[in-house]
Amino acid sequence: MENIIEENKVASAEGKVDFAFVIKVTLVAALGGLLFGYDTAVISGAIGSLENYFFLSAAEKGWAASSALIGCIVGAGVAGKLSTQLGRKKALIIAGILFTISAVGSAVPEAFTTFIIFRIIGGIGVGIASMLSPMYIAEIAPSEYRGRLVSCNQFAIIFGMLVVYFVNYFISGQGDTSWNDTVGWRWMFASECIPALSFTFLLFLVPESPRWLAMKGKDEEAMNILTHISATPITSLNDIKLSIASDNNQEKASVFKQPYLFIVFVGVALSVFQQITGINVFLYYAPEIFKKIGGGNTDTALLQTIVVGAVNLIFTVVAIFSVDRFGRKPLMIIGSTGMGICITAIGTAAYFQSTDVWLLVFVLGYIACFALSLGPVVWVLLSEIMPNQIRGVGLSIAVAAQWIFNFIVSQTFPMMMDNKYLFDTFHGAVPFWVYGAMCLLTILFVWKYVPETKGKTLEEMETLFIDKK
Description:
By secondary structure, this protein is mainly alpha-helical. It is built from 20 helices and no strands.
């Protein structure tokens, strides 16, 4: 408590938020989100060629698509410790280096095992960035703008996906099927070097998180940053120090003790629901889905995938301008309802083998509803709800859970679609119906357990969840 700024100094600390500074830092941190999207979606254009080049079975095809997610689980698991010990900034630099190594390594292998190793390395970078980019933005952002600024990270994720869809389409057009099966897919992975190196370099130009600095007793450095991001920097530092001191006065801040246990449970549940509602099936396998249920060729399927990415991007922008206006909870409930309706319709269309153009409308409707809700809003909530003292560990657990269920969904989808009984009997409808049922569970969970966090400071979140238990 002795390091806390005296309250009588607060009045002299009135100022203005330096929005240019906040935006600059947000854009650099959001490049981690762009790489997240780029690295995870590059597989969508390459998976068919990988299947032909390495002669993959259905299970191996799923492993090629989902192996990076093992690295994501590891990365998310270590990100909390890295961010606590080294700081948010240095941990993100490590992620940028891992992205670069993976981009080069995934482009050159002649053996499937070597390819998998480098995809896992890239996945570790994704896991670190997926947790730390939104957390870093949340710790920099003024509370009244935090929702839309953290949503910029989701915009960057989707933008990264859309960029790589265009890159994949451009590369695939440079040769015939044989060229793509032997060379084209290598250029798809190698192209990630450009954003990876840019991200790593730009991180050296931004400051450390003021909340991490305060936790480490570096109050003067924290104050220097808070003068740019808070109209009342001394009050902000005082609140941060009070929160940390309060946590330190407890027996031991642990995610397995109340009130933290319930907060971490909510974070884990939100992460799981974001994945088991099926979004990454479309992001990773979109060209293969369009070819299988729509009967199109590779070029047409890749173009349809670009349309999916564009819709995802447009409605993410809508979410950015809505999340601080309408709140987190309404967007989650409305979006999950739309997702459930659309993906159930997709499954029904597959069951009746009705693959007319209107099926694409439901796919795009599902993507739009996700982009308006579970996509950006889950990341906003995860970055908000964890108290200062357990933010690193709590986010690590929640994000690791997200990647675990991402892996489960990504690994099992091609196996379900390839299952002779399921496909011959239900024509590929089963996984989509399962995801639709998960949308209903998401609605019920959010309605009962997730409080509205709009406009609250990070230090006020804990009481919201205590009241919600």
